[in-house]
Amino acid sequence: MFSSTTTTTTTAVGHLTRRAFTRPACSAQRTSRRPINTSSTAYPSGSVRHPTQVLPSFGDAATRSEKSRTVPASHRQLPELPSRTPLYVGSFLVIASVWAGFIYFSTNAEKANSSIVKAVLFELRSNPAVSDALGDTIKPEKDDMFGQLWVDGQINLMQGSVDVAFRVSGSERSGKVYFTSVRRERGSEFEIIRWKLIRDDGMILDLVNDEATSRPIMLTSTDHKDVAIGPLRAAPKTSTIGSSGSPRTDSGRLV
Q1: 49: part of which helix (H) or strand (E)?
Q2: Whole-model pTM?
Q3: Phi, psi for 140 (deg, rounded to 5)
Q4: For residues 59 and 70, what is the distance between their CA atoms, to the nearest angstrom?
């Protein structure tokens, strides 16, 4: 297949002599010795000239097209997070309810421990008509859960308005007391407009006399810490200072 040609050239250049070299010569025609596989494994159902053609299925083509349109993970849109609005609204309602309950509880405790309620209870215990209606040992009826007297209404001595209602109980019966007093003019005494006891069986005991000359009044000290209840005709024009430093009158008892 291959042949070689030897060429010898001698050139005298001084004392140098070029040696001969061999140049390979290619044959005019090359033949390939690569074997052609014509067995039945290469073309199972055809021949060498007409081999069996395998056509791609449409499912594979659709899958490849879908894969080609797949967005990289770094460019995909993030999933939507669930809304937290119900959580915020629920938390706000719980906090608002707790805060409102705390304010109502503290305000009621302040009214239950006020001098107005104490003065009304003192007069109820010393009133024979109330003792006949409820029995002995008259005391405020406290709540079973919190152990506190619940007082409805408001007490605002600075603006001259007192309107409260609370329950009392005796050794025989129970009822609810309603007490309302206003100050018509600045510097005047508190006039008691409504003061009655409604028993649980419906009996009403009015503790305010209808005659204007004997309508009771509520006396307060300058700092509104001491309160007394007495008749209008016995209200003194001047007051004396007691041993405790608070003004005392003969028309009522300071509580």
Answers
A1: none
A2: 0.55
A3: -70, 145
A4: 17
